[in-house]
Amino acid sequence: MLKVAVVQCPSIPAAMPPTELAQLAGCVAYCNHSLRVIDLNVRSKQEGWHRDQWADEVLAGGPDVVVLSVPPGAEDASLALASRMKSVRSAAQVVLTGSYFSQFERAEELASSRFDAIVGGPIEDLIPKLLGLFEASGDWTALPGVVAATREGVKSGGRPVPFTFDLDLAPYMDFSGFRAGDYERPTHLPMVASRGCPWRCDFCAPRERWAKHSFKSGDRIFSEIAYARKQQPTWRHVEFTDIMANGSVDSLVRFSEMAVENGLPSRGITWRMQAAPKPDMTPEALEAFARAGCAEIVYGLESGSPKTLKAMGKPIAVAETERVLRDTRSAGIRTVGTLIVGHPAEADEDFEATLGFLRRAKGALDRVVLRAIEVQEPSVLWRGGAVRATEDVLRGRITSLAEVAASAGMECEVKDLSGTERPAMAA
Q1: Strand (E) positions, 311-410?
Q2: Do 357 and 209 have their domain in common?
Q3: N or C: where does the chain have the smaller number of CB atoms within 10 Å of the terminal CB?
């Protein structure tokens, strides 16, 4: 049995336990190794950043392997912590993985003696294999999807591993090592129904990180939630954190049926998801979600201009979006929509079309979130060096949208130009 510590450095809001870290914990627990979970992301919000102190803390338990979960934004802190740990205790094996390394070439670029390996493929598949090889022989350098630093230099497993792993076969996320009270939403269970996205919006990164969209079956979603609630029985609300939880509406309908059959709604369990206004979001599907405790759906609307939507790569029709919003509200589910301004293809007449769309959404949209476009690495626009509208134009358009939302009685949340939150505007 190995002693394994799984760690996440600061990067994201600390509302709930990070799902990537929970998935790593699940992989270690599945292999019956000794597990310690250290969420430095939430601790940094309370204590600040203390690299040397935290390196000593991670190593104090004498772990054989330390696995760092590295989402985008955590790379610098993770590299610094890994380097410190290797300088203090070179015998400890330090492994980096996570969505930041979903592109295998990024793993190859960063591999160095500051750590021992980078896993650049599906962790649900590769982490159990890596730990098994290390326990058996101490050598994981030949494992596909792994870039290892050896005495002879950087060595690759030879090829990337595509993200085609069946998510139903993955170990359950493990939340036993988290303290719910440490987080901003202590009664919220974070859950994922899918990985990646079936669409390819030009400003968004998930499709570039994971070439294939994968999703869990409804049975798997239900059983994983049940498993997590046994570990954290105070959790009363399920928050689907994936970018498009309704990639498979059929899976969510099946999950909803199982939730009703097993009495989750009658026990006060609710859930919320981010979704796309797709044609298969039928009244029947939405009513099934409502019966199962779905309280709110956040739709990625982005624009009310057909031309801008086409330029973005969003295969949705404005009329279909309006229908989905109405049907969602009719089912008794609260509706939230995100709109962005400043896309390179958004002309004045396109913005006017978005204003018209928002006016027509009165009564169907409870809340709108407004933001300037954020071009994510390594999206199509990021690679092409796209230039968004000027700050004056962005401010003017966000202000106009906020005024329309207020006149329509919608709640309105405004993100400033750097993507951070400003106080919500009352309807």
Answers
A1: 334-341, 367-372
A2: yes
A3: N
